[in-house]
Amino acid sequence: MHAILERQKLAQLTDGSPSAAVRIDRLDRAIGLLVDHAGDIADALRDDFGHRSVQGSLITDVAASIDPLKHAKKHVKRWMRRAARRVSPAALALLGARAWVDYQPKGVVGLISPWNFPFNLTFSPLAGILAAGNRAMIKPSEFTPRSSALMQSMIAKAFGETEIAVITGDSRVGEQFSALPFDHLIFTGATSVARHVMRAAAENLVPVTLELGGKSPAIVGRDADLDLAAKRLMFGKTLNAGQVCVSPDYALVPSDRVEAFVDALQRAVVGMFPTLSGNPDYTSIVNVRHHERLLGYLADATAKGATLRPLGAAGETFDDRRLAPTVVLGVDDEMDVLREEIFGPILPVIPYDGVDDAIAHINAHARPLSLYYFGNDRDEQERVLARTIVGGVTLNDTILHLTMDDLPFGGIGPSGMGAYHGVDGFRTFSHARSVYRQARFDVSAMLRPPYGKTVDRLLGFKIRR
């Protein structure tokens, strides 16, 4: 890994900042890999998960990875332009002084991607990394070994090792990878792991972007269309069987509408999945450990007095790590389903009396990656937006803010730091170098000793209210 990093850094220094044509060529090659290997990607993901929806994989890990690459290709020339800035005081401009910002490649970016969307959460940030003119080293998750191996072989077909390299291996390799002296490091994954990644990066003062998770709430407003809200919420909760960092983690529902909302959730699930067992559209939990973790959350909630309401066709059994979408009622903060990020198709429902109570509940906990609000009361929408601090918001749907190429995606506090997507990704992976060009007139002469009345007059002008 050290040798690859040194070769990439040397190549970056030797070649200098790549032209727009080189960056577009790299983006094109990345797009071509996804197009040419779409079927292979879906097959690898299905094998890694035990079962994963083929169409779901083509949507989330192929099409949704191509979009940001195409967006970067379309706009990279404009993003690269020198950005003029005002000089101060403004009179200096009349004398010929100029100021601007150049966006330079940082160099070599380390990219640690997770198991839930291995290709999307590699190629989506790669759009900004390549558009910014960087080289990259990628460490995919060991939990999806076939996908990681496929990614490594794909990348090797289209990119030299000094452009992009994929490093596979277990958590020990991941620890060593996160300690490398990159010029920037982006990590997507669990908050608990992020602490170790950030600590390792700090040894070399490597700047980091952390895309984490947390407990993303959904508020169902009193005037919400329950059936429509349920369909949209359960889309977000059952996509990839809830194994999504921006999946709605729990729902806050008016106390007198809880039962009606649970009924609407049942109709929504049956509408999408008439049966769950053997359904090609419904994804399994990625491995035994995570499946047992989710069953443990349900057992813990039941033992502490909660009520479980499985959704979908009654009486189904599963032998392939599938887990029926399950509503949990009567929850409290002592239960694991409200203490831990769920990352599965389990939805605790918390009743509230007024929207301020819902807001207070959100603010009493760690700042989440996403928030969802369902309802048409614009004043209430604005109240929720004004009084909560979260990574990103979708109103009247779930997850879709993540798909907007021109919106930054990122968390805040325990849900992450920094952002990417679109121009924000380009800037995250660029160094904004400031440049000032002095006028021919020797303006700074008055700032050099010996000081006298001219400096006194200047200071009198500056040091005032």
From TrEMBL:
Could you provide one GO biological process annotation from this protein's UniProt record? aldehyde metabolic process
One GO term describing the cellular component: cytoplasm
Query: Which terms in the Gene Ontology molecular function aspect does this entry carry?
Result: aldehyde dehydrogenase (NAD+) activity
Q: Which residues form the signal peptide?
A: none
Keywords annotated in UniProt = NAD, Oxidoreductase
Stated name of the protein: Aldehyde dehydrogenase
The record's listing under InterPro entries reads: Ald_DH/histidinol_DH, Ald_DH_C, Ald_DH_CS_GLU, Ald_DH_N, Aldehyde_DH_dom, Aldehyde_DH_NAD(P)
Tell me the organism.
Luteibacter rhizovicinus DSM 16549
Which SUPFAM superfamilies did the record assign? ALDH-like
Looking up PROSITE patterns in the UniProt record yields: ALDEHYDE_DEHYDR_GLU (PS00687)
- What protein family is recorded? Belongs to the aldehyde dehydrogenase family.
